[in-house]
Amino acid sequence: MSESSATTSARPRRRVVNLPAHVGPTRASAYVCEAVSCLSMQSHDVLLGLGERVAAAGLTDVEVKRVGCLGLCAAGPLVQIPETGELFAHVVPDNLGGIVEALAAAVPGGERVPEAPFFSRQLRIVTENSGRIDPESLEDYVASGGYQALRTVLSTMTPAEVRDEIARSGLRGRGGAGYPTGLKWNTVAKAIGSPKYVICNADEGDPGAFMDRSVLESDPYRVLEGMAIAAYAVGASIGYVYCRAEYPLAVSRLHKAIQAAGRSNYLGASMLDTEFSFEVDIRQGAGAFVCGEETALIASLEGGRGTPRTRPPYPAVAGLWHQPTLINNVETFANVAPIIRKGGSWFAGLGTATSKGTKVFALAGRVVNTGLIEVPMGTTLREIVFDIGGGIVDGRAFKAVQTGGPSGGCIPSEFLDMGVDYESLIGVGSFMGSGGMIVMDETSCMVDVARYFMDFCREESCGKCVPCRVGTTQLFMLLERITTGEATMDDLAQMERLGHMVQRTSLCGLGQGAPNPIFSTLRYFRDEYVAHIVDRVCPAGVCSIEPAPVST
Amino acid sequence: MTKPTLATIWLDGCSGCHMSFLDMDERLFDIAERADIVYSPLIDVKAYPEHVDFCLVEGAVSSEDDLRKILHVRQRTGTLISFGDCAVTANVPAMRNPIGVQPLLDRAYIENVTINPGIPVSVVPKLLAMARPVHRVVKVDVYLPGCPPSADLIYQSLVDLLAGRTPDTHGARFGR
Amino acid sequence: MTTVHTLRIDGADVAASDGQSILAVATENGIDIPTMCHLDGLSDTASCRLCLVEVAGSNKLTPACTTLVTEGMDITTTSEQLTEYRRTITEMLFLERNHICAICVANNHCELQDLAEKLQIDHFELPVINPSVGIDASHPLFAIDHNRCIMCQRCVRVCAEIEGAFTWGVMGSGIAERVVTDMGTPWGESPTCTSCGKCVQVCPTGALFENGRSIAEGSKAQRPFLPFLKRLGEGLEQT
After folding, report:
1. Contact A29, A65 (CB under 8 A)
2. Is B89 in Cβ contact with C130 (below 8 Å)?
3. Hey, which residues 57-116 in chain B have their CB within 8 Å of chain C?
4. Under an 8 A CB cutoff, do C133 and B98 touch?
5. Domain contains A275
6. CATH for the stretch C103-238
7. Beta carbons within 10 angstroms of residue A382's beta carbon
8. How far is A173 from chain C (nearest CA, A)?
9. Poorest-confidence range of A147-156, A541-550, B7-16, B64-73?
């Protein structure tokens, strides 16, 4: 039980919740966001204070509840009254009067989504429970439809039928590459070997990306349910969630969820009184970015150094301990239960021709509404950045949006009306990745952006293969030379040649993708590179370049 | 028809490449037939001529003096040849690069010295931050690696160059 | 029962048995593919990327050492592009640490030097890194100069797979990666090292060497301990 001790010590210190129990039917509720972003802004004090104030006001028919991520992280701490759709932003613990008044005045009714475009333009499947249920309450999850899918699967469906349903849905891997999930499940199911394993990849590491963390913090049971369904579908009996240790709250909530689900027979031996058994354990990674690569993740899970190996054989055939292993991302598993509940054809009806369903994005950077959003595939960048995101901070001009993390690219304004899906992003030289979206305005220097991501890759390269180990450092040196005004056009040409070489010869996706930020910024912003080199100026004013020496 | 002119210069190196040059022995007469040797540490000429067709550069660019020389020579030379490992890779002079100039001087002139410790400030040229291969400073046209390049390689390369051909450096390698 | 495959390497039809790597089949047929991390008798890691080859029908390059042959494969082991990549990789190996052939114990007995000669590399174009790396000379018989290490990890594998001592490992990541003995314990204090010297023998460069050898004396073919090295050694001794 080393996991539990590690988990306890890593948990943020919080007072015990002793909210006054309300009696009778609930007339109104206050949902207080307790995901990490709001927690860091004292939302726990808001929760406790609100409980006291509600009790003091004698509102016995009002429920004050901890919920997962409400999405609009920029405005935290957030409190929502679902009956009225009212959302209170930037709530401080000693000024809760307005919320108490609103709770007193609320008339019961159905749940209403806040009217602001940030909420109304989203379509929530993966995050349907986020900000609605108490992430640490199994009862809450079950009450909102949780484990219906697993019950259906175990009692009425054969594994092949489950796989067919997933294949029919058109779901593709949400970790970034977009491999068809149904095909992967079929491969693992057909692979010979026992036991088989299911691994949930929660080693989210892209800068500015926090989708998986939010899902685990807000709705951990959903991921466990998805894993259990997957295990049934492929014939696996053991599962691991590989989560980075930098996510202590996610690990803690997941840990509680595993224990609670086990006690209620949603996990473990003879689940839901059937013959199916499935155990899940958490393994914490030390935060190496490369461990998000599936073969490196498996090496780390086996207790070795987290370095990738060449594929084939793919993990589906020879993965953990050389056994057939299904690896999917958190968000992929989170999509499974709704697909089973509502049918693969329902899911296939959402999104674009090649990319079905929704995608969760972490909006970050120079956008007003930073936070977590979920939109159907095919939603345009303009809708995401301007309607949902609320446009650029301080009314500045939009310059680019970076997607796909360190392997991704920067998309300029000319593609704002492009619908976002796996193929369209690749078409413009970027990448879906796990869903980070960093918005940049005119104050961002694109050479500096490329330099930043190359620095990241250089730091995170595991060092196994030569092109990535040495190449990322040399590309970084060349970029640094450009940002300090010491480079020549020959250096630029050399950087491009080297970038292609690193892309083609590196062993895993980290090295193969590392030059992408260079290529995409060169593709759309080559003039900025030339300005640094020839004119020795940084157009955005970010890089400090010494004036050219006066020739004597 | 006048013969092409040939020069050699010596930057931060051990002179081993020039020794190897002398190891051409009687073939030196053959080289002298094919070219006029107009400037070299091996001959008594004080100033680098206005224009030289070919120049062999031994040694890395390590000091301000080296830098001044190589810039001057590059301007006045047609084909510049990096001659030996120090010129090609900075080799032994580059061993100091990871250490840094000041710790290096302290070690050499203060810590390990018992009589009159002190870093020289005059006469000795000032060290650059890094010892660099010649092609990191100026454009280089031909590379002859080796520590030192063998007399055979030097001879064959010079014969090719003086005849206007690109030298065949097949078999040349770093080290010996 | 062994299945036999026929395939083409550089236009020549060759036969191979099931389970053979592209590299093994190429070597059998006298086709030379440059390698560095590979050593016959040890497991393959495909980490140096020198043996990447083109396989018709795939737009990705494939490491010859870890890719098993399949029926009808059409393999190209040398092209202008591949040679260019191999030259760049070799340059990278020289530039990531401080290789100074002139003062190296393995001068003229060095696989990296040989590789540069074979690929006709006469200078380096890429940025020089010049890291500050150390030497561990605490062992009574051997020493390691990290300046000359190219992270092929043959020492790590021979120690684990042949000697079974598991003394060598890897510490750090990226460009700061180093081979270490016993999780960073000085080699001389290693409780697991059996002083067998296999790591020194398999080291392709002068990174691992026997104490008391001077420049260019570190010939690796002097004390063969694996049958294949003995054969290789006999071949080398004749030249």
Report:
1. yes
2. no
3. 82, 85, 88-92, 94-95, 97-99
4. yes
5. yes
6. 3.30.70.20
7. 16
8. 21
9. A541-550
Is the ipTM beyond the 0.90 threshold? yes
What gap in Å lies between CA A64 and CA A47, rounded to an integer? 7
Q: CB distance from C49 to chain A under 8 Å?
A: yes
Sheet arrangement for strand A436-441: A371-376, A358-365, A436-441, A398-403, A409-412
* DSSP secondary structure, C23-88, as one string: HHHHHHTT-----SS--TTS-----S-TTEEEETT-SSEEETTTPBP-TT-EEE---HHHHHHHHH
CA angle C98, C100, C102 (to 5 degrees): 170
Tell me phi and psi for residue A485, to 5 degrees.
80, 15
Q: How many CB pairs (< 8 A) connect A and C?
A: 90
Q: Does A107 map to a domain?
A: yes
**Residue C133 touches chain B, beta carbons under 8 Å:** yes
- Among candidate residues A118, A94, A127, the one with its CA nearest the CA of residue A210: A127
What distance in Å separates the CA atoms of residue B140 and residue B125, rounded to the nearest whole number?
Answer: 24
Q: What is the pLDDT of residues A475-534, one digit of tens each?
A: 999 999 999 999 999 999 999 999 999 999 999 999 999 999 999 999 999 999 999 999
Look up tokens 């329902």; give the residue.
A346
> Strand order of the sheet with strand A86-88?
A62-67, A28-33, A79-81, A86-88
C214 touches chain B (CB under 8 A): no
Spell out where chain C has E strands.
4-9, 12-17, 52-55, 61-63, 74-76, 135-136, 142-145, 168-171, 178-181, 208-210
Backbone angles phi, psi at C13, to 5 degrees: -75, 130
What DSSP string describes A251-283?
Answer: HHHHHHHHHHHHHTTSSBTTGGGSS--BEEEEE
CATH code of residue A374: 3.10.20.600
Burial code of A440-463, b = ≥16 C-beta within 10 A, e = fewer?
bbeebbbbbbbbbbbbbbbbbbbb
Whether B112 is in a domain gets the answer: no
Shared-domain flag, residues A471 and A436? no
Cα distances from A121 to residues A375, A386, A393, A486, in angstroms, run: 8, 11, 20, 47
Q: What is the mean pLDDT of residues A527-549?
A: 90
CB atoms within 10 A of CB A5: 9
Domain boundaries, chain C: 4-78, 103-238
The number of distinct structural domains making up chain B is: 1
- Tell me the backbone φ, ψ of residue B31, rounded to 5 degrees: -60, -40
Range of the domain at B60: 5-97+125-162
User: Structure tokens of C30?
Assistant: 């006298």
Domain limits for position A143: 138-348
Diameter of chain C measured on Cα atoms: 54
Say how many CB pairs under 8 Å bridge B and C: 72
CATH assignment at residue B86:
3.40.50.700
C172 and A464: CB-CB below 8 Å? no
The answer to whether A500 faces chain C, any CB pair under 8 Å, is no
The pLDDT score that the predictor gives to residue A5 is: 43
Question: What would you measure as the largest C-alpha separation in chain A, in angstroms?
Answer: 89
